[in-house]
Design brief:
Largest sheet: 6 strands, parallel
Number of helices: 6
Strand content: 15-25%
Order of helices and strands: EEEHEHEHEHEHEH
Radius of gyration: 17 Å
Length: 203
Amino acid sequence: VELGSTTLGLAKGALGDTTEWVVLCAAENRRNARRNDWLVDWRVAKAWRGAGGEGQRGLIGCGDISRKRVAPALIELDTCELVAVNRARTDLAESFAREFGARRWYADWREVIADSEIDAVYIATPVYLHAEQTIAAAEAGKHMLCEKPMATSVEDCNAMIAACNASGTRLAVNHQMRFMDQYTRIRGELQSGKFGALGSMNV
């Protein structure tokens, strides 16, 4: 499993043996490369038990990244439906839901998790909320795609992993950049030994 440097350099062993991870559920949207959009591809999540890559999704957090990237990507997919969104201000949650076709909106994120129609959630809130929301979602049996960084401490990361292990849910951290063409090409060249043995690298 690969995690980006923003994930606090998780200690070795932080990922339990029983946890299956998909550390990216995103792909570049090549249909309009000029927009530099990313397509959050829930089809990659076929490894998620119960999610099957298709189903009803909830969005927790309707800030800038959700408006510009997450929600537009979700509504482009024909494999899932954006059912409900959350934002603390009800009026803004409602306008966001209407803009992106979600059928319900909630001021309390716990209501998204409690929504029985939703089987997976995208967590796009400030990082200090990630652990609490992920653990609550896992306990409710929801699968999750979480914005990076994963959490604010290794202890919180471990607690998130433990909650997913206990519930049999899947958690992915959205490090989409490593799957973009230029990075996969560089990685391939490094793995091929083209540049020899590198002692350090600064990007």
